[in-house]
Design goal:
Blueprint: E1 15-17, E2 22-28, H1 33-47, H2 54-71, E3 76-82, E4 89-95, H3 116-123, E5 126-132, E6 135-142
Antiparallel strand pairs: 1-2, 2-3, 3-4, 4-6, 5-6
Helix pairs in contact: 1-2, 2-3
Length: 147
């Protein structure tokens, strides 16, 4: 199935295996997509026998999707769950914004939003951004040290 045109509304979300061992799904750039992304993460980690990572991974994917919903430009995002090694998993969210996320270090306790990357940083082994000509992928890796 071809990706939706940039100016069209996204159709129903469809999961696709992107090869062994990865999963990806195109979702509407809407807050409700975080629940679908969490299901995709749970499914992949269960298939791979990485259940101990599910709680942290679902929190991380929720934050990555939330950032893409807030800052993306087009009506859809892409969630990717892959295994860069036998023990590690990589969660990624692709959007069409070129704005690179930054880790907030200010201590404004009255600010209720904007601290999601602090959670991502705390729960993952590493995270970063891959920039593309048309946007970016924000990714995070978990579990490299786990057996």
């Amino acid at each position: 199935m071809a990706p939706p045109a940039e100016d069209s509304a996204p159709g129903p979300a469809v999961s696709h295996s992107t090869g062994h061992p990865a999963y990806s799904q195109t979702l509407p750039r809407e807050p409700r997509s975080a629940a679908v992304a969490r299901r995709l993460v749970r499914t992949a980690l269960t298939v791979w026998g990485r259940e101990p990572l599910i709680e942290d991974a679902t929190l991380v994917i929720t934050e990555l999707v939330s950032n893409a919903v807030d800052h993306g430009r087009l009506p859809s995002i892409r969630v990717i769950v892959s295994r860069p090694s036998a023990n590690a998993i990589r969660l990624g969210v692709v959007d069409r914004s070129k704005i690179t996320p930054t880790l907030r270090t200010d201590a404004d306790e009255e600010q209720t939003r904007g601290r999601g990357l602090l959670l991502v940083d705390a729960l993952t082994d590493r995270w970063g951004t891959e920039r593309y000509r048309w946007g970016k992928q924000v990714w995070a890796e978990l579990g490299e040290g786990a057996a």
